[in-house]
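Same chain as my last thread, 178 residues:
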Amino acid sequence: MPKAKGKGRRQKYSYNLNRKRLYRSARRRAAPRIACSHIRHAWDPTKSVAQNLAEMGLAQDPNKAVPIPKKLGMEVESSGREQGNKIVRKPYVVNEMEYEASLPEKKSNTLSRDLIDYVRYMIQNHGENYKEMARDEKNYYQDTPKQIKRKINVYKNFYPDEYKDFIASLKQEKMDVQ
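reply #2:
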């Protein structure tokens, strides 16, 4: 079987490539990206992982940093004090991480716009009559009365202020009609 054309030729040196830049970019790509911004900014690439973490006051191996006590007594307490004598040159890293961890977590879970519109429509037209809601033509998924009640309760729990305002506006509309 014949060879593919151009495969037997030896490679020529390319003078147009910047070898230094290629080497640096390859090293940068090979180094992992540190997700924590505080650690990333304090990281010294000339030092080892153990040296960097020791300077920041972080543990490299959690099993060695906080050993599981085999015997309860004075031996465990004294060994813990001996390990704490390391010099922390960058304490701000730990302080920033502790501050960030102490902040309250944001509520990231919300309901879909379709579900909110569905619940508001059902309450607006049927009030608290779940059997009527189940027979409504907008009940596309053929939810049972209990399923609809559960969806309304989820809406109440997620948006209690909005639900109260919505109910108040419905009562106001009924007062205006009468």
